[in-house]
Design brief:
About 75% of the residues lie in helices and about 0% in strands.
């Protein structure tokens, strides 16, 4: 015989998981990447997440690394995201931006005059 409390608990967990997933998608859409990552972590603690959620997590982490001028790590996150959805070109564009910024920042001090 099915225990109704067990079914209610499972249903409640399912709903909680879905709320975190969809709220994370919303946070990515409005560029609130830290909040998206937090919600994805909460969803993962309830049960396994789908490929789209992992993609959003990697994309969010990469963008946050770019915000902190850590372009090498950002490109690694974008490359990992591109493995989930290779047809999505956003990760490739972001990777290129990260590589260009990394390269240009590495030469920044080489071309500045030492004038006082």
């Amino acid at each position: 015989m099915n225990n109704p409390l067990n079914d209610d608990h499972q249903f409640h967990s399912y709903l909680k998981h879905q709320v975190y997933i969809y709220r994370a998608y919303g946070f990515v859409a409005i560029e609130k990447y830290e909040q998206a990552i937090d919600d994805i972590k909460k969803a993962v603690s309830i049960k396994k997440v789908d490929g789209a959620t992992i993609y959003n997590k990697m994309l969010s982490k990469g963008i946050l690394r770019m915000d902190h001028e850590d372009y090498i790590m950002a490109t690694k996150y974008f490359q990992k995201a591109s493995l989930k959805f290779p047809e999505n070109k956003d990760t490739y564009c972001l990777s290129i931006i990260g590589v260009v910024r990394s390269f240009s920042y590495s030469f920044t001090n080489r071309f500045i005059d030492d004038e006082k």
